[in-house]
Write a structure and sequence with these properties.
transport, mainly alpha, 2 domains, Cytochrome Bc1 Complex, Chain D, domain 2, elongated, 271 residues
Length: 271
């Protein structure tokens, strides 16, 4: 009994009991903690890691123009509040980082992987609230109303992008880009964020369904270049090119026919 009592009074006994208690508590918490809470903690940890990695990428590739904290400089606008969707569009289409300043930054091959783009987007989103990256359901053209999308596109977009999204020139060296071959997600994000010379269309002005219909229309009219319901498409640039064609070739052909008929008539009278 004396030996047993001596062991119980060992100086490390209290520490051993405490360690066992902590281990048991942790095990019970892991086993019985709400799944949603555990998932939320995991997501928060993953988000924090993405922001840290994105901050490193930003410092290397973006801070020289947009400032060390995204506040903007004379070479680049502020990124506070632009949101993750703007980053995904600009970096995903290769427009950012820009090669050189100009009236407009053109699309080019991007230099970041999608994981790196997501990390950059997470960091910029942490600077201020803005449009988030859309899920696939929002921009998937499958099952969308193409007719409604065409009407909305002609009303809101054709003034710059032309009737089938072929693009066109704007003022002072700017231009509306050709939408053929553009990823549906990037078309949706452009409507969300209004990059460069384009206005932004919030969900209040243009609901998610309408944006999706517009995406479906753009993909539909560019899906088969060999098929044009109206005949020769003349590049799909709209009434200006079609009217010019009619005046030059149509009217020219009529003048030529009239001249030929007059010449034949005069020759017949002489004979």
């Amino acid at each position: 009994m004396k030996k047993l009592s001596a062991r119980r009074r060992h100086p490390l006994a209290a520490l051993v009991v405490l360690l066992f208690a902590l281990a048991a508590t942790g095990g019970l918490y892991t086993a019985f903690a709400p799944a949603g809470e555990a998932k939320a903690e995991k997501q928060e940890s993953s988000k924090s890691l993405a922001i840290e990695e994105g901050k490193k990428l930003y410092a290397t590739g973006c801070s020289s123009c947009h400032g060390t904290g995204g506040q903007g400089t004379s070479d680049g606008p502020s990124l506070v509040g632009v949101g993750a969707a703007a980053v995904d569009f600009q970096v995903g289409t290769g427009r950012m980082p820009a090669q050189q300043p100009g009236a407009q930054v053109p699309k080019k091959k991007n230099i970041y992987s999608q994981d790196e783009i997501n990390q950059l987007a997470a960091y910029v989103a942490s600077l201020g609230s803005g449009p988030s990256q859309p899920n696939k359901k929002a921009y998937d053209p499958a099952g969308a109303d193409v007719a409604n999308g065409g009407e909305l596109f002609r009303t809101n977009c054709s003034q710059c992008h032309n009737f089938t999204g072929k693009g066109g020139a704007l003022t002072h060296g700017k231009f509306a880009p050709d939408l053929d071959g553009v990823d549906p997600k990037h078309i949706y994000e452009a409507m969300q964020t209004g990059p460069q010379n384009m206005p932004s269309f919030t969900d209040g002005a243009l609901p998610e369904k309408d944006k999706r219909d517009i995406v479906a229309y753009v993909k539909q009219v560019n899906s088969d270049k060999s098929e044009s319901p109206g005949g020769f498409s003349l590049g799909g640039f709209g009434p200006v090119s079609e009217g010019l064609f009619a005046w030059i070739f149509g009217l020219g052909a009529m003048v030529a026919v009239a001249t030929w008929v007059a010449a034949r008539t005069a020759k017949a009278k002489k004979s």
